[in-house]
């Protein structure tokens, strides 16, 4: 009879440890999903201006470009730890190939960052400058999503 409380306590400790370990993975997924939402908001503002759907505003453009740039400066290893692919975490859209070809993923991210750097410089310089930079950002997004993200289909 005395073993039952001990077994229950052990199960709670082990179960709590497993639950705690599992909560680390969703936190990374949630963080990078937040990162993508910041990027989507920022790119939405910039693309809206480039298309003429939002009136060009140098200050707003600079702020959106700055936020976009800031989002690319986060440590990838922290945001994209192993064990958080779409095969392992239901809410993840990150394909397992990211961790199979980490160097390729980092190179793709670096290429996107170059386009974002150009956008940050161009955004406050006027509508034409912003329009000239938006294509590189869009291509960077599209390429990454094609190669590294689970399809919506």
TrEMBL record:
GO terms for biological process: electron transport chain. The keyword Transport applies. Pfam families: Cytochrom_C_2. GO terms for cellular component: periplasmic space. It comes from the Bacteria. Heme c binds at residues 141, 144-145. It comes from Jannaschia seohaensis. This is Cytochrome c556. Binds 1 heme group per subunit. Gene3D superfamilies: Cytochrome c/b562 (1.20.120.10). One of its GO terms (molecular function) is electron transfer activity. Residues 1-21 form the signal peptide. Keywords: Electron transport, Heme, Iron, Metal-binding, Signal, Transport.
